[in-house]
Amino acid sequence: MANGSLTLLVRSRETRSRYRGAMDSPFIHGRVALADAAELIERYGDDAGFEAAMRAEQSRDDGNVARFCHWRQIERVIATLSSDEVIGTIH
After folding, report:
1. Does this model's pTM top 0.70?
2. Which of 55, 60, 75, 78 has a 20 to 30 A CA-CA distance from 45?
C-alpha cells in the first residue's frame, strides 16, 4: 500500500532528522512550481501554505505520489517566498 508507506516515511522522526540539514536551502523545480505557488499566494493570501498542504494530503490519500511531492514542494516554496529570513550565501 503506497499511502501507508509514504505516510510513514514522510512523518517519521528519523526522516526529518536525517534530512533537516539537506533541506535548508530551497530547491525550486521550475516555472510550474513558482507559478503554482504564486497562484496560491494570490488566491489564498496568508493561507496559501495551508491550501498547498491540503492538496498534498489529498494527493497522498488518492495514492498519487508525484502530485503529493509536487504540492509539498509548493508548500516549501510558499514558506520560502513568505519569509523575510535570508537563506544561503549572500553575494
Report:
1. no
2. 60
